[in-house]
Amino acid sequence: MTLAPSPSPTPGAAVAQRLGSVRRPRSVRVLWLLVVLAVLVAVMTTSVAVGSRGVGWSEIVAALGGSSETIGEAAVTKRIPRTVLAVVVGAALGLSGAVMQGVTRNPLADPGVLGINMGASLAVVVGFAWFGLFSATSIVWTAIAGAALAAVFVYAVGSLGRGGATPLKLALAGTATSAALISFLTAVALPRGDIAESIQSWEIGGVGGASFSGLRTVLPFLVVGFAVSLLSARALNSLALGDELAAGLGERVVLARGVAALGSVLLCGAATAVAGPIGFVGLVVPHVCRLLVGVDHRWLLPFTALTGACLLTASDVVGRIVARPSEIDVGIITALIGAPFFIAIVRRQKVREL
Amino acid sequence: MTVVVPPPAATVDAVARNRVRRAGRRRAVITVLAVLVVVAFAASLMIGRTFYPPGDVVRVVLGQEVQGATFTVGRLRLPRAVLAVVAGLSFGLAGVTFQTMLRNALASPDVIGVTSGAGAAAAFAIVFLGWSGTAVSVTAIVAALAVALLMYALAFTDGVVGTRLILIGIGIAAMARSITSWVLSEAGAWDFAEALRWLTGSLNGSTWEATVPALVALVVLAPVLLVLTRQLGALQLGDDTASALGIRVDRTRVVAIVAAVGLLAFATAACGPIAFVSFLAGPIAARIVGPNGSLLIPAALVGALLVLLADLVGQFALGTRFPVGVVTGVLGAPYLIYLIVRTNRAGGSL
């Protein structure tokens, strides 16, 4: 996108300064890319190495090679799918949040804040309890359908009234909706003792029960979601200029928005299907990434995926360390990290933009 | 230059009549609500696995021995019903106070994190510190006040701005909920019944020990809010207008927040954060009463009625016994849609 700086001195200077703060030279972006990749490798290694049971390097290397003879190697073998799941889910949620923020042009959009993950969760529990859906693929489909319904509902509710979908209305609609969805979820699960046992994992997300077979089921959905979302980058750049300007640039606004939203819902629905509702990753990550690489979605979107993977994996490691010998679900950790961040964003916004 | 013409006597008469009529409607509504609360209260004492006729119930309440009923009604149903009323009144009052002050129907304490803060602290005190009774209530109120003050401080830039306060509250609510979840999962076996109490609110296992502090708080703090009725009404016109009317805006707000938070915290310590009662009570009361004066008392009564009825429904109307918070939580969703659709039609903004 090209934005010609205005020649008039006072507003022009402000615009130029603003552009300077949002556009980054290629070298800076590449540097940050390397940094984020290095961090990702580091947290993945930590995630495999650290847990309630301490293991030595030789055991880790042996386990990565496929051996699981000693207890330490077996522990590492169990941590590998968990790490992969954290990386995949984190990437999905980070990217999903970035697309959502682009589609709604709303700095507070996040699959957790808007209640979309909770919609996916409720749909899965309803599928268990009322329709006997236990096959892995049907769970994913149900989760995505639930996420889509919740997204449409919250967006519709939030954009009613004057001023359209303001951050305030969207966030309130999302919070109230997810509170209601949790009640529904409890009401559905309570009469069913067999489901009530596992209800915790549908109220708070975690990656503790990871397995490669579960991952394999959601992988096609995630791949499609990643592809659709990443391909929307150019459209999101146009949409960022406002609907009229985007239409003037030849963008089919409604179609572009719909496709991008679909990609985002696919990602967070599938992520919820394997890991339960995890909030705030999609909120925090895009804001951090915008600071690092600027607002161009062609750079921003892949970056949010990588950073999301880092954040979720790191949160999972923290959850395993701080409460030894027990573990804290990663959904709790991300909320504790993400909510103060949410507050900080709110405090930075000007009142009329809320 | 326009000359102010005194309105004709007929107009003055009409306005006065109208005022009387509106005050009459408000009184009528309050009376009907109070009667309904009493009926629902009586029903929740009579209905159960065994039905006790009104005569038995009255004798038990008066302290006489009745075979069977003394234990069932006196020890099980009475504390539960009293707690339902106390919690309903407290949540209703506190909710409508916040909604009036922040001029936003969605800005009730259960949406913006004050109730969840109290719930998280209570759960922490019970699970980790092994406390009970008043100590838990005190922990809850300290935490809820801290949350409210933190919110106020974070939102304070050139005066407190309502929208920012609400959004910050949403962030804090998310944190408090996750702390509650963490406390519950640390408690070892995920005790489902106990977890539900602290996540959605429940009257199961109510005892006098838990009920009395909430009752005392209601008796002390409700009058404080009722005294502030006129000031709260003025705050609804906006800070500038309220100051022009001679209201000390910041002082009123602080006193009202402290009183409302106290009510919430004590009720929450007793029965958990019963979902959506604070959120629902005010707007429902506004709907029934119309623009006819303060909503504090009607909203309190609506809150009590909601909790009593939701508890009856949760216990007996469905195949499974649901905690009261699940019922009120499910009620909240359709109401939310209705509220927003109606606000849209009226052309207002949320």
Can you walk me through this structure?
The complex is a heterodimer of chains A (354) and B (350). In chain A, helix 4 (71-104) packs antiparallel against helix 13 (253-275), helix 5 (116-131) packs parallel to helix 7 and helix 14 packs across helix 15. Chain A has a single domain (81-353), classed as ABC transporter involved in vitamin B12 uptake, BtuC. Chain A is mainly α and 354 residues long. Chain A contains 16 helices and no strands. Residues 1-20 of chain A have low confidence and may be disordered. With 350 residues, chain B is mainly α. Chain B has helices spanning 9-46, 54-61, 69-102, 114-127, 134-155, 162-186, 192-200, 208-227, 229-235, 239-244, 249-271, 277-289, 296-317, 324-345. The relative contact order of chain B is 0.15. At the A-B interface, helix 7 and helix 16 of A face helix 6, helix 7 and helix 14 of B. Chain B: Belongs to the binding-protein-dependent transport system permease family. FecCD subfamily. Chain B: The chain crosses the membrane at residues 28-52, 81-99, 111-129, 135-154, 166-190, 210-228, 254-281, 293-310, 322-341. Chain B: Its main location: membrane. Chain B: It holds the Pfam family FecCD.
Layout of helices and strands:
The complex is a heterodimer of chains A (354) and B (350).
Chain A: H1 9-22, H2 26-49, H3 57-64, H4 71-104, H5 116-131, H6 136-159, H7 167-189, H8 193-196, H9 200-203, H10 212-231, H11 233-239, H12 243-248, H13 253-275, H14 281-293, H15 297-322, H16 330-348
Chain B: H1 9-46, H2 54-61, H3 69-102, H4 114-127, H5 134-155, H6 162-186, H7 192-200, H8 208-227, H9 229-235, H10 239-244, H11 249-271, H12 277-289, H13 296-317, H14 324-345
Features:
heterodimer, A: 354 residues, mainly alpha, ABC transporter involved in vitamin B12 uptake, BtuC, 16 helices, 75% helix, globular, disordered N terminus, B: 350 residues, 0% strand, ABC_BtuC-like (chain A), transmembrane helix (chain A), transport (chain A), Iron complex transport system permease protein (chain A), transmembrane transporter activity (chain A)
